[in-house]
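name: query_chain
kind: protein
chains: 1
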Amino acid sequence: MENENTELHCERCREEILEALYQLNVEAKKYADGAASAYNSGMKTVARSRSLRKKSLYGLKTAILREFVESGCVDSIKRHEIDGELYYCFYIGDFSFHSPVSEWSHVPVDAPSSSPEALESFDTDPVNRPDELGEYDALARLSDEFESPNNYLPAPFVHSNFKSEFAGWSSLPGAVAEGDRVDGRFGRAVDSPENPFPSNDPFLFEVGDSFQTRERGECRILDRYRAWMPPLMAQSPIRPASVYDVTLDGSRRETVLEDRLVDDWGIMVADLSDPLPDVAGEQATLVSDEIESSIQFGIGDILEVQPMQEGGDNWFCRITETSVSYNLVICEFDPVKPTESTPMRLSVSEFVDDVVAVHDTPPDSES
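structure:
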């Protein structure tokens, strides 16, 4: 049905914007068809990428139509049934746009509406339809006037063959790359006083915490946030991760994975009775849960440990170094004669119950 109302309601519903919105709809249909074709051909990653773009474009389209309705830019609204599903058809100037009824809780009472109408009476080729725009030009116009389709991606990355690729449009606003901060889009929560649904996994360190690392000197926490990062030992998938900006031996390092701090760099313990004296974050709580006041030995002490098997000789070892890995305090040892060898690394919880004596000097030199 041809709409004869070509009055410009506002600057945002001008002809070039409606052209771009029409082209967005064309591109969304192309991505929908492409996703189905790729999936049927077994190209699951391509299908996933096209499906995400399709959903993003339709999400942006619905958001723009909502703004047009609220601004009084819609000339009339019809209701059409297509393949058994109900759609609203919004007429704006020489253009018309379908949107599923299920996407709308209601059509505002101050918007023009009419009774249901058969699809056959709908003119799918409005007069004065412009020449087809390119995808990028259409989306760039809408991004400048409204929002970027990148803001409506259900998920930002697709993964294949140990690689992660951004699912959206890298040349448009809102693109996301590895290392970028998690900003609350894509269903991810961000820790902030304004966010009613903060992330459930707490940061292990607080800003201001400091500690010695095994080989890299002092580390001090300057900032903490969540960023899109691959796991420490893999290239895929990129996911939200806890990261920090730190100074390491006086040099600034940014976007350092929490896993690297606690496992790769080695947080050194100077005193088993107070394993992390300059750390006030969750990491300190985890460590304090393992170290109990009953532990009566420290770094440099010689431990006499009773073997698990009955009838064997006790073995002797000196604690040479202690570090932290998440909730574990891990000790490294040197054997003390007459013991020939000892385990290289054990957590305190693994041997503390087996310690039968603590010595200052090797047992063969004691009087």
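note: Residues 1-6, 118-129, 193-199 have pLDDT under 50 and may be disordered.
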